[in-house]
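Recall the central idea of this unit: under ordinary conditions, the amino acid sequence of a chain determines the structure it adopts. In this exercise we apply that idea directly, starting from the sequence alone.
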Amino acid sequence: MPEQRSSGPKVGLVTFTDGRDSFFDLPRETYLRELHQELSAFLTANGCQVVDPMASLRPDRDGWFGVRRYGDAAYCARYLQAEGAECMVLCSHFWTPPMVVIDLVREADLPTMLYTVDDPTLPGTVSISAIGASLLESGVNQHAVQHERLRGQPERMLAWSRGVSAVARMRKSAVMLWGGSYALHMEHLQDDIPALKRLMIRDILNEGEYALIRRAENILDSAPDRVQHFLDWLIDNGATIIYDDISASPRNFQVQIAYYLAAR
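Accordingly, the structure predicted from this sequence is:
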């Protein structure tokens, strides 16, 4: 079976606007829509899966675009959860009611980044500062307290989204420990397993090493093309492999690849 890259991080993208009815301005809302679409295209072009509730929430180009009411925030939270978003970027380029953002962070319960463009003519920096302070004071969940803030430089959100996505997927995954138990079976020395399961791993499984060895030997004997395919995949994706005549020989590396394939 060919080795495949995992899909990119699923990033929720929401843009906010002024909540006051008397402050409606169509050029501003059109500008917000354009900024939103530009950021969505940037994330998509860099391997992210964008979860965008704004497309269905605000189809009318002649009205409000940004989120501005509690009902809007509730809709976005339901949409993000239904589509499996792993994190969310909340954009505020003009003044935004902080309580509406707090409501979305509470209901969506996802790793959160506050973002605004780097434009000194816009109040976005002041807005995300006020929103961030409100999130810290409210402490509605862990993501409110540990949110990130970013002004411009959207490329910096790529590493963040990959990191939080990896953690989200680890919490839904299992880890296999090959070689059986450890610490001479003394339970009081094995507290790292429950700690890991509490923090970031759904389950941790134990398996004797001999089952892994047998599977790896079978791959080397009957399906060496799988090992070569994985080696080619590493090289095609930029890996540099340096061999020596002691432990990092080509044969030893092939055995290590077979162990990896056997463990999958």
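The beta strands are 10-16, 49-51, 87-92, 112-116, 148-151, 174-178, 203-207.
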